[in-house]
Amino acid sequence: MKTLRTPFASVCTLLFSLFLCATPAAAQSQNRLTAAEKRAGWELLFDGKTLDGWRNFKSDSIRPGWKVENGTLKCHDPKNAGDLITTKQYDWFELQLEYNISPAGNSGLMYHVTDKGGATWATGPEVQIEDNELAKDPHRCGWLYGIYQPPVDPKTGKPLDATKPAGEWNKIRLLISPEKCVHEINDVKYFEYVLDSADFKERVAKSKFGGMKDFAKERRGYIALQGDHGQVSFRNIKIRPIATPEKKK
Fold it and tell me: pLDDT at residue 195 above 60?
Protein backbone atom coordinates (compact mmCIF):
# COMPACT_ATOMS: atom_id res chain seq x y z
CA MET A 1 0.00 0.00 0.00
CA LYS A 2 1.44 3.38 -0.99
CA THR A 3 1.81 5.87 1.85
CA LEU A 4 0.36 9.30 1.20
CA ARG A 5 2.57 12.16 2.29
CA THR A 6 1.25 15.54 3.29
CA PRO A 7 2.80 18.65 1.74
CA PHE A 8 4.14 19.63 5.18
CA ALA A 9 5.86 16.28 5.65
CA SER A 10 7.34 16.48 2.17
CA VAL A 11 8.71 19.95 2.82
CA CYS A 12 10.23 18.89 6.14
CA THR A 13 11.89 15.88 4.53
CA LEU A 14 13.27 18.05 1.74
CA LEU A 15 14.65 20.64 4.14
CA PHE A 16 16.26 18.00 6.31
CA SER A 17 17.86 16.40 3.26
CA LEU A 18 19.19 19.74 2.11
CA PHE A 19 20.58 20.36 5.58
CA LEU A 20 22.43 17.04 5.58
CA CYS A 21 23.88 17.76 2.16
CA ALA A 22 24.78 21.37 2.87
CA THR A 23 26.39 20.95 6.28
CA PRO A 24 29.61 19.21 5.11
CA ALA A 25 30.06 21.67 2.26
CA ALA A 26 29.45 24.62 4.55
CA ALA A 27 31.97 23.27 7.03
CA GLN A 28 34.58 22.88 4.29
CA SER A 29 34.18 26.50 3.25
CA GLN A 30 35.03 27.76 6.74
CA ASN A 31 38.34 28.13 8.58
CA ARG A 32 40.33 29.14 5.53
CA LEU A 33 42.43 32.15 4.62
CA THR A 34 42.18 33.90 1.30
CA ALA A 35 45.31 34.71 -0.67
CA ALA A 36 44.87 38.36 0.30
CA GLU A 37 44.62 37.48 3.99
CA LYS A 38 47.78 35.41 3.80
CA ARG A 39 49.64 38.29 2.17
CA ALA A 40 48.36 40.60 4.91
CA GLY A 41 49.85 38.33 7.59
CA TRP A 42 46.73 36.59 8.89
CA GLU A 43 47.14 33.22 10.61
CA LEU A 44 44.49 30.61 11.44
CA LEU A 45 44.19 29.69 15.10
CA PHE A 46 41.78 26.84 14.32
CA ASP A 47 42.03 24.62 11.25
CA GLY A 48 38.48 23.25 11.51
CA LYS A 49 39.72 19.68 11.88
CA THR A 50 41.89 19.38 14.98
CA LEU A 51 42.55 21.01 18.35
CA ASP A 52 46.16 21.70 17.37
CA GLY A 53 47.44 24.98 18.78
CA TRP A 54 45.22 24.86 21.86
CA ARG A 55 45.39 23.44 25.39
CA ASN A 56 43.59 23.88 28.66
CA PHE A 57 44.79 26.61 30.99
CA LYS A 58 47.74 25.38 33.06
CA SER A 59 47.60 21.99 31.36
CA ASP A 60 49.29 20.23 28.47
CA SER A 61 46.08 18.48 27.41
CA ILE A 62 42.47 19.29 26.49
CA ARG A 63 39.51 18.09 28.53
CA PRO A 64 36.74 16.13 26.77
CA GLY A 65 34.22 18.95 27.13
CA TRP A 66 35.83 20.48 24.02
CA LYS A 67 35.60 18.85 20.59
CA VAL A 68 35.76 19.57 16.89
CA GLU A 69 32.30 19.24 15.32
CA ASN A 70 31.29 20.13 11.75
CA GLY A 71 34.21 22.49 11.35
CA THR A 72 33.66 24.24 14.68
CA LEU A 73 35.57 24.34 17.95
CA LYS A 74 32.78 23.46 20.34
CA CYS A 75 32.39 23.54 24.11
CA HIS A 76 29.66 20.90 24.31
CA ASP A 77 30.04 19.96 27.99
CA PRO A 78 30.95 23.02 30.09
CA LYS A 79 31.11 20.89 33.24
CA ASN A 80 34.13 19.10 31.81
CA ALA A 81 35.71 21.70 29.54
CA GLY A 82 37.52 24.53 31.33
CA ASP A 83 39.14 27.45 29.56
CA LEU A 84 41.22 26.87 26.43
CA ILE A 85 44.33 28.91 25.65
CA THR A 86 46.52 29.14 22.58
CA THR A 87 49.88 27.39 22.77
CA LYS A 88 51.49 30.58 21.42
CA GLN A 89 51.58 34.00 23.05
CA TYR A 90 50.76 37.29 21.35
CA ASP A 91 51.37 40.94 22.14
CA TRP A 92 49.74 43.29 19.59
CA PHE A 93 47.29 41.92 17.08
CA GLU A 94 43.99 42.00 15.24
CA LEU A 95 41.75 39.01 16.01
CA GLN A 96 38.56 37.88 14.32
CA LEU A 97 36.28 34.96 15.10
CA GLU A 98 32.68 33.83 14.82
CA TYR A 99 30.69 32.33 17.68
CA ASN A 100 27.35 30.57 18.03
CA ILE A 101 26.06 30.38 21.59
CA SER A 102 23.25 28.39 23.20
CA PRO A 103 20.19 30.11 24.73
CA ALA A 104 21.21 31.78 28.03
CA GLY A 105 24.82 30.79 27.23
CA ASN A 106 27.80 32.67 28.62
CA SER A 107 31.41 32.58 27.47
CA GLY A 108 34.34 34.90 27.01
CA LEU A 109 37.45 35.80 25.04
CA MET A 110 40.53 36.82 27.02
CA TYR A 111 43.83 38.24 25.81
CA HIS A 112 47.29 38.76 27.37
CA VAL A 113 46.58 35.81 29.67
CA THR A 114 49.53 34.55 31.72
CA ASP A 115 50.08 31.70 34.15
CA LYS A 116 50.37 34.02 37.16
CA GLY A 117 46.70 33.96 38.09
CA GLY A 118 44.51 31.12 39.24
CA ALA A 119 42.15 31.70 36.30
CA THR A 120 42.46 33.15 32.83
CA TRP A 121 40.45 36.24 33.77
CA ALA A 122 42.74 36.97 36.72
CA THR A 123 45.37 38.28 34.29
CA GLY A 124 43.67 38.69 30.91
CA PRO A 125 41.00 41.31 30.17
CA GLU A 126 37.82 39.58 29.00
CA VAL A 127 35.63 40.33 26.02
CA GLN A 128 32.24 39.09 27.18
CA ILE A 129 30.38 36.59 24.98
CA GLU A 130 26.79 35.69 25.85
CA ASP A 131 23.20 35.40 24.76
CA ASN A 132 22.10 38.96 25.48
CA GLU A 133 18.44 37.92 25.59
CA LEU A 134 18.46 35.22 28.26
CA ALA A 135 21.87 35.19 29.98
CA LYS A 136 21.79 36.34 33.60
CA ASP A 137 25.12 38.18 33.64
CA PRO A 138 24.42 41.95 33.29
CA HIS A 139 27.69 42.46 31.40
CA ARG A 140 26.72 42.04 27.76
CA CYS A 141 28.38 40.57 24.70
CA GLY A 142 31.28 42.59 23.35
CA TRP A 143 31.86 44.56 26.54
CA LEU A 144 35.27 44.58 28.20
CA TYR A 145 34.03 42.81 31.30
CA GLY A 146 33.59 45.18 34.24
CA ILE A 147 35.52 47.99 32.56
CA TYR A 148 34.05 49.29 29.27
CA GLN A 149 30.66 49.10 27.60
CA PRO A 150 29.24 50.66 24.41
CA PRO A 151 27.32 53.95 24.41
CA VAL A 152 23.55 54.12 24.77
CA ASP A 153 21.61 53.47 21.60
CA PRO A 154 19.08 56.32 21.26
CA LYS A 155 16.66 53.93 19.55
CA THR A 156 16.39 51.65 22.58
CA GLY A 157 17.66 53.71 25.49
CA LYS A 158 20.01 50.81 26.31
CA PRO A 159 23.70 50.14 25.55
CA LEU A 160 24.29 49.45 21.87
CA ASP A 161 23.61 45.80 20.99
CA ALA A 162 24.54 44.48 17.54
CA THR A 163 24.33 40.78 18.39
CA LYS A 164 22.16 38.24 16.60
CA PRO A 165 19.99 35.82 18.63
CA ALA A 166 21.32 32.63 20.20
CA GLY A 167 21.69 29.91 17.60
CA GLU A 168 22.95 32.32 14.92
CA TRP A 169 26.56 33.09 14.05
CA ASN A 170 28.01 36.36 15.32
CA LYS A 171 31.34 37.95 14.44
CA ILE A 172 33.83 39.54 16.83
CA ARG A 173 36.69 41.78 15.75
CA LEU A 174 39.23 42.75 18.38
CA LEU A 175 42.14 45.12 17.80
CA ILE A 176 44.81 45.25 20.50
CA SER A 177 47.59 47.74 19.81
CA PRO A 178 49.71 50.23 21.79
CA GLU A 179 47.80 53.15 20.28
CA LYS A 180 44.27 51.86 20.85
CA CYS A 181 42.13 48.78 21.42
CA VAL A 182 38.84 48.38 19.53
CA HIS A 183 35.85 46.07 20.07
CA GLU A 184 33.44 45.32 17.20
CA ILE A 185 30.43 43.01 17.02
CA ASN A 186 29.06 42.11 13.58
CA ASP A 187 31.04 44.99 12.04
CA VAL A 188 29.59 47.53 14.49
CA LYS A 189 32.15 49.42 16.57
CA TYR A 190 31.35 49.42 20.28
CA PHE A 191 34.19 51.46 21.80
CA GLU A 192 37.93 51.91 22.01
CA TYR A 193 40.41 52.35 24.86
CA VAL A 194 44.14 52.54 25.52
CA LEU A 195 45.89 50.07 27.78
CA ASP A 196 47.93 51.79 30.51
CA SER A 197 46.03 55.05 30.05
CA ALA A 198 44.83 56.93 33.12
CA ASP A 199 41.23 56.18 32.18
CA PHE A 200 41.91 52.46 31.81
CA LYS A 201 43.74 52.25 35.15
CA GLU A 202 41.00 54.20 36.93
CA ARG A 203 38.29 51.92 35.60
CA VAL A 204 40.22 48.79 36.55
CA ALA A 205 40.78 50.13 40.06
CA LYS A 206 37.02 50.62 40.50
CA SER A 207 36.18 47.15 39.16
CA LYS A 208 36.39 43.73 40.80
CA PHE A 209 39.80 43.38 39.16
CA GLY A 210 41.25 46.26 41.17
CA GLY A 211 42.48 43.92 43.87
CA MET A 212 44.13 41.49 41.46
CA LYS A 213 47.80 42.45 41.33
CA ASP A 214 48.48 40.71 38.01
CA PHE A 215 45.38 41.80 36.09
CA ALA A 216 46.12 43.49 32.72
CA LYS A 217 49.75 43.97 33.65
CA GLU A 218 51.44 42.01 30.87
CA ARG A 219 51.57 43.08 27.24
CA ARG A 220 52.12 39.60 25.91
CA GLY A 221 50.17 36.44 26.66
CA TYR A 222 47.79 33.73 25.53
CA ILE A 223 44.42 34.08 23.81
CA ALA A 224 41.78 32.25 25.88
CA LEU A 225 38.27 30.95 25.22
CA GLN A 226 36.05 30.43 28.24
CA GLY A 227 34.41 27.04 28.57
CA ASP A 228 32.59 26.75 31.87
CA HIS A 229 29.33 28.72 31.53
CA GLY A 230 27.40 27.10 28.69
CA GLN A 231 27.60 25.55 25.24
CA VAL A 232 29.29 27.64 22.59
CA SER A 233 30.92 27.01 19.21
CA PHE A 234 33.67 28.95 17.46
CA ARG A 235 34.91 29.05 13.88
CA ASN A 236 37.04 31.19 11.56
CA ILE A 237 39.39 32.10 14.40
CA LYS A 238 42.23 34.08 12.86
CA ILE A 239 44.85 36.52 14.04
CA ARG A 240 47.08 39.12 12.41
CA PRO A 241 50.11 40.06 14.49
CA ILE A 242 50.86 43.78 14.41
CA ALA A 243 54.42 44.96 13.89
CA THR A 244 55.09 47.85 16.26
CA PRO A 245 58.07 50.22 15.88
CA GLU A 246 59.86 48.34 18.67
CA LYS A 247 59.38 45.00 16.90
CA LYS A 248 60.67 46.39 13.58
CA LYS A 249 64.02 47.41 15.07
Answer: yes
